[in-house]
Design brief:
- It is an enzyme of class 2 (transferase).
- Its EC number is 2.6.1.44.
- Keywords: Aminotransferase, Pyridoxal phosphate, Transferase.
- The protein is an alpha/beta fold.
- It has two domains: 11-16 and 273-385, Aspartate Aminotransferase, domain 1 (Alpha-Beta Complex); 22-271, Aspartate Aminotransferase, domain 2.
- Helices cover 42% and strands 15% of the residues.
- The chain has a seven-stranded mixed β-sheet with strand order 2-10-9-8-5-3-4, with helices on both faces.
- Strand 3, helix 4 (94-105) and strand 4 (109-114) form a beta-alpha-beta unit.
- The longest helix has 21 residues, at 276-296.
- The radius of gyration is 21 Å and the shape is globular.
- The protein starts with 10 loop residues before the first strand and ends with a helix.
- It binds pyridoxal-5'-phosphate (PLP).
- Pyridoxal-5'-phosphate (PLP) binds next to helix 3.
- Pyridoxal-5'-phosphate binds next to helix 3.
């Protein structure tokens, strides 16, 4: 164990990037290595195997490359949908809109089921849509970071299996992997798109996508060529398979140091205490504490139903007469960094707190208490300042 300690800093509790453990940052400071060296090969190999573990899969194919969450949308759109094919999208916010936009760039015909603001798409609407047309793919944002709405992926998958079993299921898990349960094999999910900087507790810079063997087969049987270069699985599949088997292969240089950091974080998530299941419980508990404190302050959250509300973040409306400038700087003065709104129609009306990774798992840090205290004090001070 290294003695490295990061500089004192304000607590980062936006919904990603999140606080990163000392040992993960220290792993990032590994001496520069050849990406083709025998020493590095098992590091990426371990990341591939442990990424699969985080999603409770034994057979799915992880793709780990330099990029961000957005590159996962390109991978889904470019590799799994051929131009003119139909996609059904469950849209619960800003990030859903981005995913839809990306699918259309590659020629998909996307039908959107638009949730009411703060709500999830009703399961009956999904069933009806699937029964009315043949879709190559159904996709959703597991947690839309703009609204904190949680999609019931398990229930959606059950409907797909019953109504349209050939339809592939893709989940944007950028704001949910490692903070919300996802059981790829048991639920029959075909693709999970994520990134390093949220629940996975690593600095930003990795695009992480996991595809079921069924999805890989669909990709391998496609008729038209993949209309992407960097995002093409034709390029990446041999590379990922080689590293997992223990030999190097090259398509584009991986972010070597970040891969060391990711392995350090995955070691904690999949191989040490608390277990992955316990982590989900810790995320639920921390989320409840923050949401209870928000309710005690008389504040309203964006999600209209607590069953469709994320456990890794909270989105909170400003009360009437208050704006971001009343609260966010006051939180920052107390060394707590939260995020403003991001949804195009409502962005000035709310703010967001992330509670993922070490901030909730490592209770000794006291991050949840610090957030709650800063919230209470900031609102008390802001309210007092309005009284003339
Ligand atoms: C749900 C969701 N999807 C996709 C993205 C895009 O990821 P990135 O910013 O890493 O490209 C984000 C980013 O916050 C997100 O929250």
């Amino acid at each position: 164990m290294s003695t490295f300690k990061q500089q004192p800093h304000k607590l980062l509790v936006i919904p990603g990037p999140i606080e990163v453990a000392d040992e993960v940052l220290y792993a990032n400071a590994h001496p520069s290595m050849s990406h083709m060296s025998a020493d590095f090969v098992p590091v990426l190999g371990d990341c591939i195997r442990m990424t699969r573990d985080v999603l409770y899969s034994t057979t799915a194919q992880p793709f780990i490359m330099a990029g961000s969450g957005t590159l996962g949308w390109d991978q889904v759109a470019a590799n799994l949908v051929e131009p003119g094919e139909y996609v059904l999208f469950l849209n619960t916010g800003y990030f859903g809109e981005g995913f839809v936009d990306c699918l259309r760039v590659y020629g998909a015909h996307v039908d959107e089921l638009q949730a009411k603001f703060g709500g999830a798409v009703p399961l009956s609407d999904i069933e009806q849509a699937l029964a009315s047309k043949k879709y190559k793919l159904i996709a959703c944002t597991h947690v839309d970071t703009s609204t904190a709405v949680l999609c019931n992926v398990k229930a959606v998958a059950e409907i797909v299996k019953k109504t349209a079993p050939d339809t592939l299921i893709a989940v944007d898990g950028v704001c949910s992997v490692a903070s919300e349960e996802i059981r790829m094999d048991a639920w029959g999910i075909d693709v999970v798109v994520t990134a390093s900087q949220k629940g996975l507790g690593t600095p930003p810079g990795l695009s992480i996508v996991v595809a079921s063997q069924r999805a890989i087969q669909v990709f391998e049987n496609r008729v038209t060529p993949v209309a992407a270069y960097y995002a093409s699985w034709k390029k990446w599949l041999p590379v990922m398979r080689a590293y997992e088997k223990g030999s190097a292969a090259y398509f584009a240089t991986p972010p070597v140091n970040l891969v060391y950091a990711y392995r350090a974080s995955l070691d904690r998530i999949t191989k040490s205490s608390p277990t992955l299941e316990e982590r989900f419980t810790l995320h639920r508990e921390a989320s409840k504490r923050i949401k209870d404190a928000v309710a005690e302050l008389g504040l309203k959250q964006l999600p209209v139903d607590s069953n469709s509300s994320a456990n890794g973040m909270t989105a909170i409306y400003f009360p009437d007469g208050f704006t971001a400038s009343d609260i966010i700087p006051r939180m920052a003065q107390r060394d707590v960094v939260v995020a403003g709104g991001v949804h195009k129609d409502y962005k000035d009306k709310y703010f967001r707190i992330g509670h993922m990774g070490i901030s909730v798992v490592d209770k000794e840090r006291g991050d949840v208490e610090k957030v709650i205290t800063a919230l209470k004090e900031s609102f008390a001070e802001a309210r007092a300042s309005k009284i003339v």
